[in-house]
Structures are given as structure tokens and as C-alpha cells.
Write a structure and sequence with these properties.
By secondary structure, this protein is α+β, with helices and mostly antiparallel strands. It has a single domain, classed as Winged helix-like DNA-binding domain superfamily/Winged helix DNA-binding domain (Arc Repressor Mutant, subunit A). The protein has four helices and two strands; from the N terminus they run H-H-H-E-E-H. Helix 1 packs across helix 2, helix 1 packs across helix 3 and helix 1 crosses helix 4. The termini are far apart. The relative contact order is 0.15.
Amino acid sequence: MDKPLDLLPGTLDRLIRTAVSLESLRAYGVLLRIQQISKNRLEIQQGPLYPALYRLDHRARITSECDESENNRTAKYYRLTAAGKRRLPTEVEKWNRIADVIAGIPGTTPEEV
């Protein structure tokens, strides 16, 4: 099995927004969902996750609410805000355009320059 890929700076926020756009999740659930939707090619560590969740919450892209977890404990759940939902399709399209450009760069030949 291949080693999980490292993230480029700035991608974690988009991955989090995509994960919580599918359903409200606890922080650990966000990690698992990203791993799941990447088919285990990305493995997010907890260290950068919590600052990213805080940053997105502060920017009103996601919101958090406390609720009871499966084991009857209080847990914080994250979900996409209305503003986050409105912006997500545009950001995904922009991300896809950038990814296409980056993917094409290594195969560039001298004749194409």
C-alpha cells in the first residue's frame, strides 16, 4: 500500500469543508471522513486539524455545536454554515482548475513553452 500523501498548504480547509458538507461530524469524524473520501490516500493528523477547525469557525465557513455523542458524552459537532454552502461549489471549481494546471506542468515539453 502506498504511503499517504502530504497535503499542500491550504488544502486542509477545503477538505474539512467537503467532509462536513456531507454531514455534521466530530473532529475525529472529520479525520476519518477525509481518509474515507480520499480512499485512504490522505491521512490527516490531529495536530493541524484543530487549528483549521478553529480558523474555519472564526471565518464563519463552518459552525460547531455541542451535543450528546453515542456514548452519552458531550461532544462538539461541526457543520457547514449557509455561507460555507454557498461558497463551496465555486471553491471546488477553482480548486479543480488549479489542480488541472498543476497536473499538466510535469508533462510539459520544450516545444510547448
